[in-house]
Design brief:
It is built from seven helices and no strands. With 128 residues, it is mainly alpha-helical. The protein has one domain: Orthogonal Bundle (Globin-like). Helix 2 packs across helix 3, helix 2 crosses helix 6 and helix 6 packs antiparallel against helix 7. The longest helix has 18 residues. The chain is globular, with a radius of gyration of 14 Å. It binds protoporphyrin IX containing FE. The site of protoporphyrin IX containing FE has 22 residues, from helix 3, helix 5, helix 6 and helix 7.
Amino acid sequence: EQWKTPYESIGGEEMIAKLVEAFYNRVAKHPDLKPIFPDDLTETARKQKQFLTQYLGGPPLYTEEHGHPMLRARHLPFEITPTRAKAWLACMREAMDEVGLSGQVRDEFYQRLVLTAQHMINTPENDR
Ligand code: HEM
């Protein structure tokens, strides 16, 4: 199986589901993130599972239901500062640790998320 997608390599639907649950459990408690997220993260988590599935080369679940992701545009209603991007990534690293996602596939996935998170920043720190 030389040409597995990252989606398949990390363990497909089951791993994405575990990762996203572990991630939003942290987001819900993080002082920098909690204020901008809804109290009920059920729908957010459902969309994130769809998104990460296609981001990693699995079926295009997000686009099928919501159209083009336009992620930066969808984040514009929220003040995404460098601090919040760091917090988001910290929650993701801890979630990856919790679910036992490791090795090269984790490192490559995480590095892509760092770039995507940087791209979401739309507010300088001193505006907060
Ligand atoms: C939605 C924050 C980075 C993917 C959201 C929402 C917030 C948020 C507040 C709205 C939640 C809701 O109303 O349900 C942040 C912050 C980030 C960040 C602070 C720090 C940089 C990312 C990254 C990705 C991502 C790196 C993808 C790899 C998504 C998706 C949604 C979302 C798919 C759902 C969009 C929709 O409504 O259809 N994010 N986000 N976010 N975020 Fe982020």
